[in-house]
Amino acid sequence: MRIIWHCNLTAIIVFVAVTILLLFSNKLYAEIETAIKSPVAPASSISPTLQTSPETRSHGVNIEQITDNDYDDLQPAINVKGQISWTRDDGSDKEIFFLYETIEKRLQNIVTRENKIRNISNNPNRMDYHSQINNTGEIVWDGSDPNAAATWRGVESEIFLYKNGTRRNISNNPHSYNYSPRINDTGQVVWFSSENLRTNGDIMFYDGNDVINISNTPRRDDMFPEINILGHVVWEAGLGQEVLYYNYKENRVEHISKNSDGFYNGWPDLNKNGQVVWVTSSFHKDKVVIYEGGMQKIIYSSTRINAKSRINSVGQVAWIEDTDSGNCINFFDGVKVKRISDKPVYQGIGGHFRLNNKGQIVWSGIVG
């Protein structure tokens, strides 16, 4: 995975790898690398290369490197079982890879892990991005046609669902732009979609059978939705003007950031308890806000917070903050804020990091 940056006419080579942060373990784990591009296959047909490597520690927590290869491994997502999905870019194609099983081995006092990884999108005619995995191992992503004419918003794309070893197109709308899907543990999926450049984005909701438009606001850009297990959805509306909360059962939309003093309220996330977190920005001051029971609470403020934050089911929150040495991961355990890693975090649409209900964080990090 070689990325060449040009800075002041100097080429700087960096290596990008997916890393997983384990907050509650002190074991030695294994560094795994596979470079497969094959159809979805049974686990017995895949033989990953196992390379024993100790974890590194940062700020008192353990960090395990999951991949180490000559490709770009980006946009990872993790579920409560420790299964991980991500995009692998080999320079000509982008596919969704799935770490679906981990076998722990012990030799005397040394513990290693063998990770089983497979390519689940396996479509050389599409560029596959923005995967998310739920706690049952179902995965969603968007796939675009690299041969389609590009616009300022991208190229035409569809939403795909991987379930029970098979994948299928659930958006089924070949002449639209469908991006950034999210899935809950019941298999409900949300994403944002735009028909053409004259139509602003809407939030689409897949209930397992049908797709409905839950925002339906033709003159406003609605994007970056998140969904919890109850089917409740939050998203950024009006290019960050406000955060909206949708109650699926009651078919009702609530404006929950209306009392915020920020001129930008973006990239919200929510948990199963209905707690919502987002970052609000105003006059060079950024704040991480938790919304619960109709009230907003500021848990952190800085001048350099990245726009994306995450919250899990126990109210733990993670976000990215820019520092003089690069981007770092901050973690709120419900009481206090702790910095997890000082190493640069590879960023982009979706924030490129995930937090599960065990407090484990996975992200794309720049190393080398």
| Radius of gyration (Å) | 20 Å
Q: What is the average of the pLDDT values? A: 78
Give the termini separation.
Answer: 11 Å
Largest sheet: 6 strands, antiparallel
Estimated share of beta-strand residues: over 45%
Number of contiguous helices? 0
Helix content: under 10%
Total strands: the figure is: 32
Unreliable stretches = 1-54
Judging from the principal axes of the Cα atoms, what is the shape?
A: globular
Structural class: mainly beta
Quick description:
The protein is an all-beta fold. It contains no helices and 32 strands. The strands form eight sheets. Strands 1, 2, 5, 6, 31 and 32 form a six-stranded antiparallel β-sheet that branches. Strands 7-8-9-10 form a four-stranded antiparallel β-sheet, with no helix packed on it.
What does this structure look like?
There is one protein chain. With 368 residues, the protein is mostly beta strands. It is built from no helices and 32 strands. It starts with a strand and ends with a strand. Residues 1-54 have low confidence and may be disordered.
Features:
globular, mainly beta, 368 residues, 6-stranded antiparallel β-sheet, disordered N terminus, 0% helix, 32 strands
How would you summarize the topology of this molecule?
Layout lengths: L1 E6 L2 E13 L7 E4 L15 E4 L3 E3 L2 E5 L6 E7 L5 E6 L4 E14 L2 E10 L7 E7 L5 E6 L12 E7 L2 E4 L7 E7 L5 E6 L7 E5 L4 E3 L8 E6 L5 E5 L4 E6 L4 E4 L8 E7 L5 E7 L2 E8 L2 E8 L2 E7 L5 E7 L2 E7 L4 E5 L11 E3 L5 E7 L1
Antiparallel strand pairs: 1-2, 2-6, 2-32, 3-4, 5-6, 7-8, 8-9, 9-10, 11-12, 12-13, 13-14, 15-16, 16-17, 17-18, 19-20, 20-21, 21-22, 23-24, 24-25, 25-26, 27-28, 28-29, 29-30, 31-32
